[in-house]
């Protein structure tokens, strides 16, 4: 099992374009391991749905940081992990896990990827995707209604009560931990430069530090 040549962290607000950037900057790389922070929400199997609906999912306390740290250490050492799966429609992990092997490139992406110091220390490069709040909320409404089984009223009320204030308190401040801030999400120039760099490291021509 290979030890990854490059570990990238991508943070930024909901709907900023983190997943899109992760996909685009690694296109053409043979083996990429994606570690979505969303899969590391705490296991809430002990709580009924009504209580799960009330949880603040944008606060750092909503995540199982210990498991994420353990899994990143394992991947960085070339070991396989059993990654949890998350079902947004029921606000909980599923009963399934996925066997995930370390790729040449490992990407951790999620709103609070740059929050935890131990996680940050495992990243060769730290990116923060900066996209205007109005664009992000429009994307989020579309996505949550179409893909995550929510209604418009619920998305708006969650946004105002927790998503926006937690973004301001916890997500946006992690920008200062980033090596690079990418404006307007997956813009062609940033994606092109990052993609070149990723390919350079994977081919052994460049060092992992950006
Ligand atoms: N640069 C972009 N231009 C237009 N749409 C985009 C762009 N980046 C992302 N999107 C769209 O916005 C939505 C959210 O993007 P995603 O990458 O999933 O965001 P995040 O992972 O930050 O929540 C998706 O439907 C995606 O296709
Ligand atoms: O059960 C849940 C878990 C999370 N959320 C929301 O998801 C986003 C993070 O996902 P992105 O893909 O980065 O948008 C976060 O803002 C949580 O509010 C949820 O609604 N329910």
From TrEMBL:
Record localization: Cytoplasm
Catalytic activity: cytidine + ATP = CMP + ADP + H(+); uridine + ATP = UMP + ADP + H(+)
Residue ranges of every copy of the Phosphoribulokinase/uridine kinase domain listed in the record: 7-186
Coiled-coil boundaries: none
Keyword presence, Transferase: yes
First-listed, main subcellular location of the protein, grouped into a coarse class: cytoplasm
Family matches, as CDD domains: UMPK
Keyword entries, A-Z: ATP-binding, Cytoplasm, Kinase, Nucleotide-binding, Transferase
Pathway annotation from the record: Pyrimidine metabolism; CTP biosynthesis via salvage pathway; CTP from cytidine: step 1/3; Pyrimidine metabolism; UMP biosynthesis via salvage pathway; UMP from uridine: step 1/1
EC number: 2.7.1.48
Superkingdom of origin organism: Archaea
Pfam families linked to this entry: PRK (PF00485)
GO molecular function annotations of the record: ATP binding; uridine kinase activity
GO cellular component terms given for this protein: cytoplasm
Record has tRNA processing as a keyword: no
Record InterPro entries: P-loop_NTPase, PRK/URK, Uridine_kinase-like
PANTHER family, sorted: URIDINE KINASE
Family the entry assigns: Belongs to the uridine kinase family.
Stored NCBIfam families: PRK05480.1, udk
Record-given protein name: Uridine kinase
Taxonomic classification: Archaea, Methanobacteriati, Methanobacteriota, Stenosarchaea group, Halobacteria
């Amino acid at each position: 099992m290979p030890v990854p040549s490059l570990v990238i962290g991508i943070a930024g607000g909901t709907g900023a374009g983190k997943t899109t950037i992760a996909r685009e900057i690694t296109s053409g790389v043979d083996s990429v391991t994606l570690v979505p922070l969303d899969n590391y929400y705490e296991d809430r199997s002990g709580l009924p749905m009504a209580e799960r609906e009330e949880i603040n999912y944008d606060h750092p306390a909503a995540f199982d940081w210990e498991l994420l740290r353990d899994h990143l250490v394992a991947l960085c050492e070339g070991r396989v992990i059993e990654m949890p799966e998350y079902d947004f429609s029921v606000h909980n992990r599923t009963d399934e896990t996925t066997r995930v092997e370390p790729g040449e490139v490992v990407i951790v992406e999620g709103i609070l990827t740059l929050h935890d110091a131990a996680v940050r220390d495992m990243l060769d490069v730290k990116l923060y995707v900066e996209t205007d709040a109005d664009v992000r909320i429009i994307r989020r409404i579309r996505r949550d209604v179409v893909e995550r089984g929510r209604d418009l009223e619920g998305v708006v009320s969650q946004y105002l009560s927790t998503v926006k204030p937690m973004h301001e308190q916890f997500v946006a401040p992690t920008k200062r931990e980033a090596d690079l801030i990418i404006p307007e999400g997956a813009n062609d120039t940033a994606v092109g430069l990052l993609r070149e760099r990723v390919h350079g490291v994977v081919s052994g021509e460049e060092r992992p530090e950006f």
